[in-house]
Amino acid sequence: MKILMVCLGNICRSPLADGILRDKLKAENLNHSVDSCGTSNHHIGQQPDERMTETALKYGYDLTNLTARQFKVNDFNVFDVIYVMDSSNYNNVIRLASSEKDKLKVKIFLNELYPNQNMAIPDPYYGGEKGFEDVFVLVDKATDVIIENLKI
Fold it and tell me: Which residues does residue 4 pair with via DSSP β-bridges, in sequence order?
């Protein structure tokens, strides 16, 4: 299975989800791949936000090998599941879908933790350190659920 994580700029939320899930898949010897991207083109080629990288490192996750890229229509052909971090990302990705099959691949990330509630992972970019910590906790818990579901 190929999994894609999507946020706005691909420098905070989606690279964190990418990095955490990659490490958890490896630890569980699960043969799935993960990538991340953003719906905007503002940060293409950049590494994750330094504050997100520092938060992840504090918990043992290294994001420094990731670089931002923009979501592209072909991602529907490459990935089996496309997790978006909020409703704005959802709408941006769905707008690019060319079929119902494409649309069914797109899921709101926190629905894994809080089914059918369509809750957003808050964007910590303009917040303080606590925002990055809060995002880490949510992403960590949601990726635990994804791992458990992949084991079934």
Answer: 35, 82
pTM of the predicted model, to two decimals?
0.97
Choosing from 12, 13, 22, 86, the catalytic residue is 13
Query: Cβ distance 69 to 37 under 8 Å?
Result: yes
H/E run at residue 54: helix 50-58
pLDDT tens digit string along 17-64?
999 999 999 999 999 999 999 999 999 999 999 999 999 999 999 999
Residues 65 and 2: their CA atoms lie apart, in Å, by 19
Does the annotation mark 123 as catalytic? yes
Catalytic residue among 35, 37, 123, 134: 123
Q: What is the CA radius of gyration of the chain?
A: 14
Domains of the chain, first to last: 2-144 (3.40.50.2300)
Q: Residue 105 is inside which H or E element, if any?
A: helix 100-105
Q: Are strands 2-7 and 33-38 parallel, antiparallel or unpaired?
A: parallel
Rounded CA gap, 131 and 124, in Å?
5
